[in-house]
Design brief:
- InterPro entries: DNA_brk_join_enz, Integrase-like_cat_sf, Integrase_catalytic, Integrase_recombinase_N, Phage_Integrase-like_Recomb.
- With 342 residues, the chain is mostly helical.
- The chain folds into two domains: 121 residues, DNA polymerase, domain 1, CATH 1.10.150.130; 199 residues, hpI Integrase, Chain A (Orthogonal Bundle).
- The chain contains 14 helices and three strands.
- Helix 1 crosses helix 3, helix 3 crosses helix 5 and helix 12 packs across helix 14.
- 32% of the residues are buried.
Length: 342
Amino acid sequence: MNEIAAQGSAEYVESIAPNEHLSESARRRIRESVPASTRRAYAGDWSRFTLWCIEKQRSHLPATGATLAEYVSHLADGGKASSTIERAMAAITVAHASADLPSPNTRAARAVLRRHRAELAEGGRGVRKAKAMTITALRAMVDTLDVSTIAGVRDRALIVVGFALGARRSELAALNIADLTFTDDGLQVTIRRSKTDKESVGRTTALPYTSRPATCPVRTMQAWLDALAARGETSGPVFRRVDRHGNLGRAPHGRGETSGRITGQAVAIIVRRTALRAGLNAASAFSGHSLRRGFATETHRQGKNPLRIARHGGWKDGSATLAGYIEDADQWEDNALTDVGL
């Protein structure tokens, strides 16, 4: 897998600056301009496409529009999500750019993908949305955590602070202790880089003290940092692996982050596991994104200014995604049938 990831990284560098001599430091920075998770995903997508082409005796580089359409149909037959297929198509485009070749025509492939989306919708398998976390659900989840354990203290801080920030799971996983500043008024959290912040300008979000200690982002984060400090950890990642014996974990079997930093996927697992433990309705629909979606809908229900919500959570002004979250919240709060006399 490491070889595949390295190949994908090299292809990305070449797609940015084909046929140019680059120093190793320049190549490293170009590689790291794209999140590691995206590089790995593209590398895996390209490897799978290459193997499929070999099996079907088709050219993978260059690939034709017909080959791309057939591959998209193959993925659709395998029940892949439309977002997975979109990413595979993007990976194939990057690989062609790396070879200084024109990308295959996507018209037929996109027609196949449109039909696949329709088939998923007709079968009740449309785009799956993470369930928005409510304040009530958050309190119930926190109540199930055993905060006499280090894992419980970590999970409480992750869920509460993740919700309070309106954070993406990748942003939570990337936080370092140096990104946190405690003040008399609360906690300032600096998000160094995000999905929509391609230039790494960063943003700092203020989290005030709240009335309930168990769900106060400032107090729960301080409790987690105190637990880390008691184990001699005062720098590096905020959220770390904890093994079943309560020890701070390192990367399993020498793979991944040697610092013990959790992954975005681990954030999703913690949220879903806690929702299931709390016995919440449709608990399996909770994910890491439930924190961000829930922040948007709950603050909107409380009448907060949409611009304030957007700036706090790092959405761009006029974000269609944020507007969609608010529209979902309003389907009951401002329903056209309310009080019409039915």
